[in-house]
Amino acid sequence: MAENKEFIREVDEDYRREQILQIWRRYSGVIIAVAVLVVAGVAGWRYWQSQQLAAAEAASVQYDEANHLAREGKVPEADKVFTTLEEQGPAGYRILSRFRSAAETAKADPAKGATEFDGLAGDTGLGDGLRDLARLRAALIRMDGPNPDAALTNLQGLAAGSAYRHTAREMLGLASLRKGDYEEASRWFDQIVTDPDTPRSLRERIEVYAAIVAGGPVTTTEAKPEPAAPPPPTIR
Questions:
Q1: What is the pLDDT of residues 175-189, one digit of tens each?
Q2: What pTM was estimated for this model as a whole?
Q3: Cα-to-chain-centroid distance, residue 95
Q4: Among residues of the chain, what percentage have pLDDT more than 90?
Q5: On the CB side of 70, how many CA atoms lie within 13 Å of its CA?
Q6: How many CB atoms neighbour CB 129 within 10 A?
Q7: What's the rounded Cα separation, in Å, for the pair 96 and 44?
Q8: Is a pLDDT exceeding 90 seen at residue 23?
Q9: What is the CA radius of gyration of the chain?
Q10: pLDDT at 157 over 90
Q11: Euclidean distance between CA atoms 128 and 184, whole angstroms
Q12: What's 108-123 look like in SS3?
């Protein structure tokens, strides 16, 4: 029995070996081609990763250089570097440079800077978070301008539920305080307080705002002049 089992095992092994050889003879070209493609794909992926890393490192150096130039007041030179990054840099640095360029522009020309942020807010290629950030930056710039109504409308949209709702509500509350509308200011501040995700630092500021709202508008009364003192008696 043992000899029969050993014989059957050897036959099975020979049969499987013959099958493998037949498969190799028939599909060896395909197997080799697939193996070559896999190796080439891995090599190409590694090469692409190294190129991306090198490009990111170069863009990082350029971005730091542009920031350094901007801090030194060399805005035109900084703008050239930012423009180069916007046109040729990796995706992340293109976006970062556009935001920084708009911020630098706003320092010299608020209206133009706000328009650049509008362009970012309308770029459907960006994520919702970045577009909301651009919308917020544009609104904050325009709040101090001659026509803040559009900015307030944008802030109200952001306050409804965006990631920047906390800042939007704070700015809307402060704008209401400046107008003397204490009821409206209280409404915005209450939304900040009741939001469980409100940052702690903002909650601490709200205590100050709440005290101002509780005090209400300050009224002043004109002091009545005191009656003039009688003239001293004349000594004869």
A1: 998 888 888 999 999
A2: 0.64
A3: 10
A4: 25
A5: 21
A6: 11
A7: 28
A8: no
A9: 36
A10: yes
A11: 28
A12: HCHHHHHHHHHHHHCC
